[in-house]
Design goal:
It is a single chain. With 427 residues, the protein is an all-alpha fold. It has 4 domains: 67 residues, 434 Repressor (Amino-terminal Domain); 120 residues, no CATH class; 103 residues, no CATH class; 89 residues. It is built from 23 helices and no strands. The protein starts with a helix and ends in a 9-residue tail after the last helix. Pfam families: HTH_31 (PF13560).
């Protein structure tokens, strides 16, 4: 298959189905201009996650693109329902005859979320009908729960954090109702912001969108620029994933402007300013706007240099964003070049170290380097196993390696690492 061939298939099927570039973009989370560049081969359509997304949107089997057909769950991030799970693990299909047990367990791991369905339902219920805490609690207790939840995020305890979210949201909301102060409402917004990041990471996109909207709603009641900017970053992230990067960039620009108006006098203001500058630049890359993306990340890098106290963490943070921008633009070589001096010790939490290595794995996979991809995934698993096991898109890359490159160095070790059985909760 040539680099252009996959794009030609996409274009042919899209036209046959009567879909516009905008229609397909909405289905896959890309802009019309990005879809056009992918179809024409201007940006090589080689990334397996992207290919699977287009296959699902067009109703094609992934095998059309030379990929293993293991279902849509790992692409969409939807949990495996108990009925589907039973069909999946029963072994009744003739396709499973003679399948190597290690390979089969690996494919099952890639078939759906490994977060127990009961935990996801708990969060969905808490978002659908905001709950009251079991007992009255004040803002201090809500703040303690939020700090504990953030520690879970930092160590990538995604199952534990998913279990804790309903209680956190209920306590924060109850405390704010009682205190009715800007600071208390800021805690509510921050709790929903953390829920957005967590749900997005584990692939529960629709729930993450609801959480992001709530973060913005309660941020407005906080009257706090940092809280408002953080909520705009979270909402913008979800708009970007809905295929609306231009609108996401506009929203993030509002956050940038509000923070600049503060004079950036506190560490929290500077930290959020840097984060939202990076997020906006990354959003421009999703819109296919290479110039504004690179200008935006250069602005963030300049901001990091201007604040010496932030430089130990700020510089690696902005460099990794620059790498991700190149990756989204389809240039794995530039992404790897930008990240060549990044080291695990530059990132101070297991989640960040794991995320560094999963990002590197994406770049290597896009470039077609299975040995380096496996090494990066193993490094990520060592720092934060959930970054490989509980993120559907990353687990898909790992499963693809095991299926297509079983004899490459490190792949058998990776297969053992990701082959834990899925938790299939009883309905």
């Amino acid at each position: 298959m040539t680099l252009r061939h996959a794009g030609e298939i996409v274009r042919s099927v899209r036209r046959a189905k009567g879909l516009t570039l905008t229609d397909l973009g909405r289905l896959t989370g890309y802009s019309a201009s990005q879809v056009s560049r992918l179809e024409r081969g201007i940006v090589p359509l080689t990334d397996t996650v992207v290919l699977r997304s287009f296959a699902a949107a067009l109703g094609l089997s992934p095998t059309v693109f030379g990929l293993l057909d293991i279902g849509v769950h790992a692409m969409t991030g939807h949990a495996v329902t108990p009925s589907h799970a039973a069909d999946t693990v029963s072994g009744g299909s003739s396709d499973d005859e003679g399948t190597d047990p290690m390979r089969r367990r690996t494919l099952l791991t890639a078939a759906g979320l490994s977060i127990p369905l009961s935990l996801l339902r708990g969060v969905d219920d808490a978002l659908a009908v905001p709950q009251l805490p079991d007992r009255p609690a004040g803002p201090e207790e809500a703040a303690q729960l939020l700090r504990a939840a953030r520690r879970q995020f930092d160590v990538s305890d995604l199952s534990g954090l998913t279990a804790a979210l309903p209680g956190l949201l209920a306590t924060a909301r109850g405390a704010a109702d009682q205190a009715n102060t800007p600071a208390a409402w800021a805690l509510v917004s921050a709790s929903y912001g953390l829920a957005t990041d967590t749900l997005n990471k584990i692939g529960s996109k629709s729930s993450a969108q609801i959480a992001a909207e709530r973060a913005v709603l309660y941020a407005d009641r906080s009257e706090e620029p940092v809280t408002r900017a953080a909520s705009m970053r979270a909402r913008g992230m979800m708009l970007r994933k809905q295929g609306r990067p231009d609108l996401a960039a506009i929203l993030m620009t509002r956050g940038v402007d509000q923070l600049e108006a503060t004079g950036l006098k506190t560490t929290a203001q500077v930290d959020m300013y840097l984060r939202i500058l990076c997020a906006r630049a990354y959003t421009y890359s999703w819109a296919g706007d290479r110039d504004r993306a690179l200008e935006g990340i250069a602005e963030a890098e300049h901001a990091a240099v201007r604040v010496p106290a932030m430089s130990p963490t700020a510089k690696p943070f902005t460099v990794l964003y620059r790498s991700n921008i190149h990756y989204v633009l389809g240039d794995a070589g530039s992404a790897l070049h930008a990240a060549q001096n990044l080291r695990d010790e530059m990132f101070f939490t297991p989640e960040r170290r794991g995320r560094l290595n999963t990002d590197l794995a994406r770049y290597w996979a896009q470039w077609g380097k299975p040995e380096q991809t496996a090494a990066a995934l193993l490094a990520a698993h060592q720092h934060a196993p959930a970054e490989v096991l509980d993120r559907p898109s990353i687990r898909m890359i790992a499963a693809e390696l095991v299926e297509r490159h079983p004899r490459v160095a490190g792949v058998s070790q990776l297969a053992r690492a990701i082959s834990r059985p899925l938790t299939m909760p009883v309905a």
